[in-house]
Design a protein that fits this description.
heterodimer; A: alpha+beta; two-stranded antiparallel sheet
Chain lengths: ~140, ~140
């Protein structure tokens, strides 16, 4: 029954959103991790989402329609190419010869909005799953 | 005696007794899956929201697709494409810059409405079964 596919689909969504929340946590934790050279500095990480295209999106006559489940997956995690934050702090222990300290290219405001967005998406997935559960439980009472 | 059983089988035909409601429930379950897929991909760049049309699905129930008769092993049972499987693309109100056309609020309301309609179909179907079982018992 295709109603149970909703569980698989929302499962992939919750997984993807929790990975997103993980990268946000990593970025925020390392927002002030300084280094004396560009190569050693932490780079902001972001997941790349992609839809799982499957039987559900093919013609019914081509495939057993809706047998496989769709959903979302994380293609990979990319490091941000945004410019680093170079600050002139000559008395900082990590300062280079010219007195500059390299701060990571983490945009804290961006990360906070990402955090709210992924947390809301996660909640929405749970809601979807709950509704599907109610529907499935209702079917089990058929004829009673 | 055979005639009696034949008539009995004709009278209690589940397909006739239940009517359109099993197909409607099947459609609602499929649509729940499609809309869940939209919502899960609300953050996926380039994803385009999809949906199914109830009227198309009911049309294919009213006139089932024609199949070819197969009389040998090698024959291929071709059939006409049924409109029920047609997954359409939603016309976006305001697509995102990344090409995503999912509007979470619209999808969420569609999902909830679909769940309600599923329960309505369920209630109708349940009523049919209750009617059948009271007919079998022969008491009120």
């Amino acid at each position: 029954m295709s109603l149970y596919n909703v569980f698989n689909i929302t499962g992939t969504g919750m997984n993807a959103q929790s990975i997103r929340l993980n990268t946000t946590a990593s970025n925020l934790a390392n927002a002030q991790t300084v280094a004396s050279s560009v190569n050693e500095t932490y780079k902001a990480r972001h997941p790349v989402f992609s839809a799982i295209f499957d039987n559900a999106f093919l013609d019914k006559d081509q495939q057993g329609a809706f047998d496989a489940d769709g959903g979302v997956r994380v293609l990979g995690i990319v490091e941000s190419e945004a410019p680093y934050d170079l600050r002139y702090e000559p008395y900082h222990p990590m300062a280079d010869e010219e007195g500059y300290v390299t701060y990571p290219n983490v945009n804290v405001v961006e990360e906070m909005t990402n955090m709210i967005s992924s947390s809301r998406s996660y909640q929405m997935n749970v809601e979807l799953m709950n509704t599907a559960k109610t529907m499935a439980q209702r079917v089990l009472t058929l004829g009673q | 005696m055979n005639q009696f059983y034949l008539e009995l089988a004709m009278t209690i035909s589940f397909a006739n007794a239940l009517g359109i409601h099993p197909s409607a429930m099947e459609f609602r379950a499929k649509r729940a899956e499609v809309i869940a897929n939209n919502l899960v991909n609300a953050d996926t760049p380039g994803y385009q929201a999809r949906d199914m049309r109830f009227s198309d699905a009911m049309k294919s129930v009213a006139s089932p697709s024609v199949t070819l008769r197969t009389t040998r092993n090698g024959h291929i049972g071709g059939k006409l494409a049924s409109p029920s499987s047609d997954l359409l693309y939603r016309t976006p109100l305001q697509p995102s810059l990344d090409g995503n056309t999912v509007d979470p609020e619209i999808e969420e309301t569609n999902y909830m409405r679909n769940a309600l309609e599923f329960q309505a179909s369920f209630t109708f179907l349940n009523g049919k079964f209750k009617g059948l079982s009271s007919a079998i018992r022969g008491q009120n």
